[in-house]
Amino acid sequence: MKRIYLLFTMIGIGLTHLCAQSQDSLDIYIDSIYHKLPEVMIKGERPIVKATQGKLVYDIPRLINDLPVDNAYDAIKELPGVAEMNGSITLAGQGVTVVIDDKVTTMSTEQLNTLLKSIPSSRIEKAEVMYSAPARYQVRGAMINICLKQGGGNAPSFQGELFSDYRQKHYEALTERASLLYSGNKFSADFLYSYGHGRNYFLTDKEALHTLSDSHVYPMNTHEMQRSRHNTHSVRLGADYLIAEEQQLSFVYNGTFTNGHNRTTVEGAQTSNTQTRSTDQLHNGRVDYRTPFGLKAGAEFTFYESPSTQLLHSRLNDDELDFLSDDCQRINRWKFFLSEEQNLGKGWGINYGAVYTTSIDHSHQYYYHPESGELLSGNNNMKSRRREQTLNFYAGFNKSFGDKLSLDVSLATEQFHTPVWNEWNLYPTLNLSYVPSAGNIWQLSFSSDKNYPDYWATQDAISYLGGGYSEIHGNPFLKPNIDYQAQLTYVLKSKYMFTAWYSQTKDYSTQTLYQSPDRLLEIYKYLNFDKKQQIGLQTVIPFKVKEWLSSRITLIGVYDRQKDSDFWDIPFDRKICYGMAHMNNTFTLSGKPDIKIIISGMVRSKAQQGIYDLPASGNVDAAIKYTFAKGKALLTLRCNDIFETGQISPRIHFATQNVTNNYSCFREFGVSFTYKFGGYKEKQREAVDTSRFK
C-alpha cells in the first residue's frame, strides 16, 4: 500500500499546477463492494457529454480514444459514475441495467458480461445514461443504453475486425474474436464469434475460531488451493430488414457454450479433495417489429441449461463425506412486449405498453455413492419445477419546455407471481433536466426498482464449497428487494461532474457466511436484511497538460448503513463512512507513430458488507498502446495490479463469528492485437439477461 501512495505522491509533485483529484471477485458466493471507479476524459473543444430528454449522452469513441479499451464491457466502465462490483456493473453505487439499441436483454450477469466482452469497443457510437429509466424502456432504476454504429451509406459494404488477447497471471488465458458486418440499402446483418480458454489458480488461507453452543472454541485454520480450466464459445447473429421508411423487422440470436473443470484441495483442520465438472449452454432468440406510427412489438425466448458434477472426499475430525453429486439447472423463459410512443407536438409526448414474462425452472440435485453409484438417502436430494410469471403495464409522458427544461414521468404496475409470492407493486419514475447554458447541466431523478433473486438461490438445496466445512444453502422464501433512489447530478462545462444520491433498499439480500453454533459448519446463504441505506457524493475532475498528458480524478464518499433484526441469532445495525479515489493518466509519447502510456490507480478505505469487514485496498495498472497501419491495427501491452495489492481479505469479527479469508493476489501481464478491415463500423446488438442463472 505504501508503494501505491508513494506513486500517487510522485505524480502529484510532477503536476504542481494541477488540482489535486477491480478486484477479482472476493468469492463467487460473496457480494463484494470492491469498486473499479468511474473515469472520464475530455479532449478537444467538443463536449463529451450532453443532456437530452432526461439522458446524459456520452461520446464513447472520444471517451476511450486514449485508453487500453478493446471491448464494450471495459468501455462501459469508463463512464462517469460507473463502477465494477463483483464482476457486475453499478452506477452511482446501485445496480444498473445495460441494454443495446433500446432493447432489454434476458441474460444473467455473467452471460451478459461475457457477451459485452466479446463485442469490440469500436462498434459503439454513444452511450445513454439514465439514473432512473422511464417505463417505456422496460427497465426500472438506472440504465445504460449502448447505441451501435450502423453501416454507412446506401452502397453495400462489408467490414470486419479480428482480435486476439493473451493474459498471463499465475496461468495463461487467451481470447480470440472475429466480427463481420454487412450493410445494404434495406438489409444488414452482423456476425460475431468469440473463443476464450485458459487456466486459473486460486489460494485461500482461512483463519477461523469456531464457537459452539457449549462454549468450546475450535481453531479452523485451512489452506485451500484451486486449479481450474475453462473453454467458452460465444456466437451472435443478427439481421435487420427495412420494409419501408420507419418500418423495420429485426432478428438476433445469441449462443454461449462453456465447459470447465476444477480441482480443489484443502489442508489443515479439514482435509478434502474436490473435483468439479460443469457445462453451460445458452440459446436466446428475439424478434422485433417497428412500425411508422410508433408501435413496437416483439417476442423473445431463452433456453439455459447448466449441468455439473462434483466428486468430494472430505474429513473433519471424525466426520467424513464421500459422494458424487449430480445437479442441473434448466430454464425456459418467454417474453412478449407491445408498446406505443406518440409525439403530440408542442414538446409533448406519451408512451404506454405491456410486458409479459413467464419462466419455468426445472432443477435437480442428487447425491450418489462414489463407487457403487447408488442414490444416497437424505434431505440434500432435490427435484423441482418452479414457474414464475411477471405482468407489467406502464404509461408515461414527456414534455420539453424550450431548449433548457425537460421532464419525463412514468408509472408502472407489475404483478410478480411464484409458488411463494403473488404481489402487485407500483413503480414511479421521474427525470427532470435543466440546461441553464451550453455545457452546464442539472439533472434530478427519482426511481424505484425491484430486484429478483437468482433462480438457484431459491431452491431448497444444499451443496458444498471447498470441502465439508462450508455448505451453500438455498432459501425458498427469499424475497425480491425493492429499491428507491433519488439523485442530483451537475455537469459543469461538459466535463466536470458532481453527483449526490440517496438510496434505500427494503429486504436487501446478499449471500452471507454464518458459523453454526450446533456443529463445525459454516453456512453460505442468501438472506433478506431489513434494509440498506446509502448517502453518496461523487466528483469527476478531468484535466490536461498541453498535448502530452490527459488525466482524470474521481472521488467518492459514501455513508452506508445495513440493518437486520433477524440475522440468525446475532441481529446487527452497522454504519460506516468510506471513501474511494481513482486517478487515470494518459501520456502521449508520440503522435507519429501513435504511442501512448496509460497509468491508473485507486485506493479505498475500509468498508462493510453485512457482518463482513472489508479492509482498505488499492491497485496500480499500466499499459502501452501503439496504433499503426493508418489506424487499422492496434497493439496493447499492459500490466494490471503491479504491486499485487488489489485483492482484499474480508474478515468477520462480530459476536461469536470469527473468520478471515486471505485470498491470493497475482499481477497480470497481457498483450492484445486488433486489426480492422473494410472501414469497419460496427453494429451493436442487445445482450441476453442471464442475471438470475447459476
From TrEMBL:
Organism per entry: Bacteroides nordii
Organism domain of life: Bacteria
The protein's name: Signal protein
InterPro entries registered for this protein in UniProt: OMP_b-brl_3
Domain Outer membrane protein beta-barrel: 295-675
